[in-house]
Design brief:
Elements lengths: L1 E3 L5 E6 L16 E3 L4 E3 L3 E7 L5 H6 L4 E6 L2 E2 L5 E4 L8 E7 L6
Antiparallel strand pairs: 1-4, 2-6, 3-5, 5-9, 6-7, 8-9
Amino acid sequence: MQKRLQVSQLVSQWVSQQSRSRYATERPQPPVITGAQEEYTDTEVVQLVCTPRYLSAATLHTQPPPTITWYIGGQPAPPEHVQPHRTLPRDPLGLALSIPAYKVRN
């Protein structure tokens, strides 16, 4: 059975602490979410990655890292379905979500 799953139903909440440095001039940017399909069947696995975005490479090392949390249906995603993710060693640490589509409610 084909079930429509909208990425907006899987919301990544991005919370960043304000830098205590008086020299910080860049504001936090919204994260980038990749891997989404428009539709999933009940037998497929939803695999998404949420990565923080910075305006410059310098900000990556001077700003406090954001805290990323995946939510499903308004509740934090079960911890067994999330894990830290970094594509390249110099990339900021993101958070991956991997969960069977049937566990995501419409």
